[in-house]
Amino acid sequence: MFQLAAEGNGPSKIARRLREMEIVTPGTLEFERTGRTHRYDPSNPCFWLSSTIVYILNNRDYLGHTVNFKTTKKSYKSKKKIRNPEEKQVVFENTHEALVSQETWEIVKKNRENRRGKRVNVALILSAQ
């Protein structure tokens, strides 16, 4: 997946390729291991969503790091989680074996930033006139 992204493929194209290759989704693997059906679709065990690809490509755990304090709560009584900015997150490097090299991670990150930078906000253009 990271190799496909490093080659310049976007999340939708990667998801399509994984579907064609009939690679089972993380939800299907979770169901097979634990029996939980939360993210499992029995009619489509290989149906990848581009949002799943984006989540995986942004997940620093694949570098072998552990990231703590990703979320917080306003009160211990609240169930609503609030995402912490990266400055407040704590990263413990090399806590487990990396599945992706740092070089590949950087290439994917750079490719994704370049792709996202090309999008044009139509409302912004229309409001400028």
Your description of this structure?
This protein is mainly alpha-helical and 129 residues long. The chain has six helices and four strands. The strands form two sheets. It has a two-stranded antiparallel sheet with strand order 1-4. Helix 2 (11-20) crosses helix 4. The longest helix has 16 residues, at 102-117. The protein is globular.
- The Rg value, from CA coordinates, equals 18 Å
Relative helix content: 40-55%
How is the largest sheet built, in terms of strand order? 1-4
Proportion of β residues? 5-15%
Structural class: mainly alpha
Helix and strand pattern: HHHHEEEEHH
Q: How many angstroms does the end-to-end distance come to? A: 42 Å
Overall, the morphology is globular
Task: Supply the number of helical segments.
Answer: 6
Model regions low in confidence, pLDDT < 50 over at least 5 residues: none
Please tell me the overall pLDDT: 88
DSSP summary, beta strand count? 4
Biggest β-sheet strands, sense, barrel: 2 strands, antiparallel
Write the layout of secondary structure elements.
Blueprint: H1 2-6, H2 11-20, H3 26-34, H4 50-58, E1 66-68, E2 71-72, E3 82-83, E4 90-92, H5 102-117, H6 122-127
Antiparallel strand pairs: 1-4, 2-3
